[in-house]
Amino acid sequence: MIQWFPGHMAKAEKEMEEKVKLVDIIFELVDARIPLSSINPFLQERFHAKPRLLLLTKSSMADPKLNQVWHQYFQEKEKFHLFIDSIEKTSFSQIVPLCRELLQEKILKEKTKGMKERPIRAMVVGIPNVGKSTFINQFVGKRATLVGNKPGVTKAQQWIKINQDIELLDTPGILWPKFQDSTLAFHLALTGAIRDQVFHKDDVILYFLDFLKKYYPESLEKRYHLPRTMENLEILNEIARTKNFLQKNEIEYERVYDLILNEFRSLKLGRITLDRPTYAT
Ligand SMILES: Nc1nc2c(ncn2[C@@H]2O[C@H](COP(=O)(O)OP(=O)(O)O)[C@@H](O)[C@H]2O)c(=O)[nH]1
Ligand SMILES: [Mg+2]
Predict the structure, then answer these.
(1) What residues flank ligand 1, with Cβ below 6 Å?
(2) Which residue of 16, 93, 170, 268 has the fewest C-beta atoms within 10 A of its own C-beta?
(3) Which residue, among 67, 51, 58, 157, has the nearest Cα to 104 in the 3D structure?
């Protein structure tokens, strides 16, 4: 099991707590390929029931069939979720309407109090590498303007006005992933949510080969022309031989691991979703 003790995280979380107070809604970004491994189940508890919109990023990298399955799952559990892709801006136009729906009561309350209509204030949170920066850049686009500091906010905090309807904090809150079990940790490692240096690559790759054999055997066959029945070590050796990853007749396993990892991350193995709702509980 992976050991990982981030000393700076407590401080970062404290800062985030302050920021959360300033917003109407939290956009929690999760990776559509690992919706469970990348979600923070304690977010709402922690942040005083602040409304949350779950945005499943990189949905164009995830298995379309599994996107459907996950959609069903969240439909029952969490009505307010959206599959997006920040590169292609998929479903971006649905974000504000969903926010309005989620915040309906609050908006109505302010209206009946005679308060002037104001933009919804949102902030982005998520574990590393889910696409927070990419989302903010793409959501903001070119037309947005910096709003500057709000009165009463001690710490310099930039707000970006997206349009009349919504403003976004310019820096995201970084959440820490959970390592409840090794499957979860493997999924985080494969998608790049935890850096390559902190896990044992051989464990991750062996897990991934088993996973491919079970759920995506056809991509193993298509990409490497290797049968799904082949032993993992044999698979690694075969790939090394084809790619000529040999040094003085010794197989360079590190290079094979990196190749497989890169091919998964660059979609050369197809659109693959790692998390399945079966171990949802
Ligand atoms: N295809 C695709 N790639 C994405 C998406 N969002 C982020 N990425 C890629 O994922 C990587 C991490 O994104 P980044 O925004 O830096 O993540 P952050 O650590 O949460 O800020 C980058 O290589 C992005 O190009 C998305 O919606 N679709
Ligand atoms: Mg970032």
Answers:
(1) 57-58, 60-61, 85-87, 126, 128-134
(2) 93
(3) 51
- 272 CA distance to ligand 2 centroid (A)? 23
* Ligand 1 pocket test target in 56, 85, 129 with most atoms within 8 Å of CB: 129
pTM, full prediction: 0.91
Out of 134, 135, 170, 265, give the residue to mutate to test ligand 1, the one with the largest number of ligand atoms within 8 Å of its CB. Answer: 134
Q: Is residue 265 part of a domain?
A: yes
3-state secondary structure of 9: helix
Task: State the CATH number of the domain containing residue 15.
Answer: 3.40.50.300
Structure-token pair, residue 84:
């997006």
Residue with tokens 């009505």: 79
Q: How far is the CA of 272 from the centre of ligand 1 (A)?
A: 16
pLDDT in 10s for each residue of the chain, 281 residues: 444 545 666 777 778 888 899 999 999 999 999 999 999 877 766 776 789 999 999 999 999 999 999 999 999 887 799 999 999 999 999 999 999 999 999 999 999 999 998 999 999 999 999 999 999 999 998 765 655 544 444 445 688 999 899 999 988 988 888 777 889 999 999 999 988 777 899 999 999 999 999 999 999 999 999 999 999 999 999 999 999 999 998 999 999 999 999 999 999 999 999 999 875 44
Residue 245 belongs to what domain range? 200-279
Residue 264 resides in a domain? yes
CB contact at 8 A, 32 and 83: yes
